[in-house]
Amino acid sequence: MALENHITKAVNVLRSRICDPKFIFSNDSPDSNYSKLKFMISSSVTEACNNSILLLGPRGSGKNAVLELVIQDLLQQYPDSISVIRLNGLLHSDDISAFKEMARQLCMEHQLLFSKAASFDDNSQFMVAMLKECGLAHKTVIFVLDEFDLFAKGKQRLLYSLLDAMQSITSQAVVLGISCRLDADQLLEKRVRSRFSHRKLLFLPPSMEDSQSLLVRMLTLPIDSSFPHDYAVEFNKNVRVSFLLRFKETLNKYLNIDSSVKDLLRFLFCAVSHMDLQTGFLSRENFEVAFSSIQRHPKLEFLRTDCSELELYILVCMKSLELKEQSLCNFNSVMKEYKSVHDSFQTSRNACLRAFEHLIHRELICFTDNRGQSLSVEFRPVKLLISPAELHQGIGANNSCPVS
């Protein structure tokens, strides 16, 4: 019973680590984005200067997680010197709604009465006045603009007003833009770009080696009084040895598909959740189950189970046309290829057309554009939405398997 309790406790410890951004991203190395961002913002707070920074990188690379950790640390370090205003381009890309939301949050932060009837100009002037007041009170306003590239559309009045107000020596603010577009700063107008600090932090998916070292660190139990010494030592030895011999293959297979930090943690959480509570150790099967449960392929499942023989023939013919460098084709060209492959062609044209339309409905193929909507389905160009490897794997597991 005591061993079972320790095993359950080990699973809970590993899960809590996976769900704790501080354990994952809080790296005191001076080369880490966490340390760089914390230094930039804290310098702006302590030296009473303005700053604007872009956090760039693909989704799931940890931009928001690192920023939230830095803001939490700074709020604890300077509780009376920082206020945070958050805007999202998906919600506030319109200048009027952005200024209204900014004014509302500023009023909440400083316990002021917010007026819903205030105009665009009123909110803009209020923002400038608040920046001056905060500067005189030695308080830094941190503006977090998520989906920054969406604010760069249109006339960019919000960005211009905000960055222009920061040119005053009495204001004290930091603008943090978060974007998946690496060229986000190039979207800015000349008048906005001239007021931007052009400081950028690039967040990239971890390399294969970084991912492996991170996982080993996360899966290693502490050697202290929390767990029986022999169990913790054996568990850690199993992780290190088995990881190099057995886990690594499954992990590499997963990382070749998706190497973002967010999805990697989801994969690891699923693997830990399937740990055998009888043995108390992680096994390769745990990672295999996690891989199969996360990487579901509805199109591949449809190929294996629900695709008719005629539909499989159509897909194989489209693949054949791709190999002949005819990537764009229509129903008529597919039927021509079908007749050349299937000598005993006796299927009616209407049945082939219904099968063709069913493949479009299941999104295994699609029309290349919407410009030919007035044309009949038979003449509109289409393309495959599955890779040759997926097609080969799918038809190989199907009882009705045409020869390609």
From TrEMBL:
GO cellular component terms attached to this protein's record: nuclear origin of replication recognition complex
Chain ranges of the Origin recognition complex subunit 4 C-terminal domain: 216-394
Keyword annotations of the record: ATP-binding, DNA replication, DNA-binding, Nucleotide-binding, Nucleus
Source taxon at top rank: Eukaryota
Annotated Gene3D superfamilies: P-loop containing nucleotide triphosphate hydrolases (3.40.50.300)
Signal peptide: none
Location of the protein in the cell: Nucleus
Function: Component of the origin recognition complex (ORC) that binds origins of replication. DNA-binding is ATP-dependent. The specific DNA sequences that define origins of replication have not been identified yet. ORC is required to assemble the pre-replication complex necessary to initiate DNA replication.
UniProt protein name: Origin of replication complex subunit 4
